[in-house]
Amino acid sequence: MLRILFSLVLSYLIGSIPTAYLFGRFYKGIDIRQFGSGNVGATNAFRVLGKIPGTIVLLIDIFKGVLATTVVASVGGIDHLFYYTLLGVVVVVGHNWTVFLNFRGGKGIATSLGVLIGLTIKISILRPILGLAILIWLVIFLITGFVSLSSIITACFLPILMLCFKQPFEMILLGVLFCVFVVIRHRPNIARLREGKESKTLLFSKKKI
Predict the structure, then answer these.
(1) Which of 45, 56, 107, 168 has the fewest CB atoms within 10 Å, counting from its CB?
(2) Residue 51 domain-assigned (yes or no)
(3) What's 126-151 look like in SS3?
(4) Full domain range(s) for residue 164
């Protein structure tokens, strides 16, 4: 039980590492929350810091999810699907509501992707689901140019894909929770989309500071 508790706390703390905020401080000497969308995530890192720092932030945020569902899972020493699911949820919660920034973090897309990547290492049937989710995101983004809309639609499709591929209850629950997290974290974006005020994103553009 202590090992499980330790692994859950560790997973939360890994998720809580505010990658974009740290890169803003060390790379530009700024608080990234004061620029762009104000979000502590990879998309705003692309907007504010540029493509190289943005790419690094994206990869680290993805890696946080992979780390929680692989290495941290090994620390707990329990080979059970519910345990992997719990670690995946906790690491995304850490990213979205980080203890290091007064529980105001990112929107969890990259870290959720990392969780799914980590789970595919253990559960091969998840690979087509992961591939389809990435494809849906890319198609929506290429058509609309909205990262937020692409993320929201993909998140809504995730539990549906889990059901279509007849995944166990734990994976369906994971898909539902990730969908709920994404919608909650994107409420301001949803409001702007409805009002026609959401900005399209050029991920490889750089905003001068």
Answers:
(1) 168
(2) no
(3) HHHHHHHHHHHHHHHHHHHCCHHHHH
(4) 2-15+62-195
